[in-house]
Fold:
Amino acid sequence: MAEGILRSKITGLNIEVDSAGTSAYHIGESPDSRAVLAARRHNVNIAPLQGRQFTSADFDNFDLIYAMDKSNLTNILALARTAEDKAKVRLILNEIDPKSDGEVPDPYFGGATGFEDVYNLLDRATDKILERIKDGK
Structure:
């Protein structure tokens, strides 16, 4: 959802946004239908997105890399080759509350509102990311 939300906000900017998982479970798969519906309720279309796995080459291709939770953060940092690679990686919810080390909850276990709750968190975080980009930070 984060990829789709941020893409919807960067129109007119020369920015590449992509997402990847840290495991191979969902390579080539579409987003969960509940995520698609939650995003659609906010006029964001994530249906065409497909899962791929994060690789060390992503450190070369992206200036910032956001992890959704500490497990993903650990997995991404394990692929880092240099201190520069590591410096690109952050928890996405730290954009809302710096140094909180908050984790995006797994929406699969969030009941009827799980995907909507995650959408709202990611919407706030991507607003902060966009502010950072526009400020050149």
About this structure: The helical segments are 2-9, 33-40, 58-61, 70-79, 83-87, 114-135.
